[in-house]
């Protein structure tokens, strides 16, 4: 068995490596490499892929699949892949959590860690997870209705991160950028990637 080759449309994609927070010695980590890919498909929304490579998966705690998996809270207490999306110039942002169990969560914030009470996502992400040997792959498809409401072709600021739970229960914090001395995925300076929402090419509208 081998992990699937992602089927992606012919659209711009970004693939980047996540880094372990400097407070954790990299030599002690069971993770060899953690890559993330993002793109905006023509049908709208966004797709996020996370891939563990050359890793000792037996030294990690990976939540098992949950039948009929849906929305769940506190997924970040265990192995979980996270996406943060904001609009440039605005303080508000969305947080997405994706668990290997298939469960997911969406949170809305008006400012740094100021969660908007009563927010409920009107659209559910689709989460798929597979593993083989020293590799594991998670794909999360986020519908447009779950993203911040913006016109087509808008560039969104994105932060990609992951919580990785070791077999001993210790947590590792991975992200594209770590702007703070302590792990803080909510730090807006860590939203260093740009994702342009899908818009029909000129002449096809």
Automatic annotation (TrEMBL):
CDD domains: DOMON_murB_like. This is DOMON-like domain-containing protein. The lineage of its organism: Bacteria, Pseudomonadati, Pseudomonadota, Betaproteobacteria, Rhodocyclales.
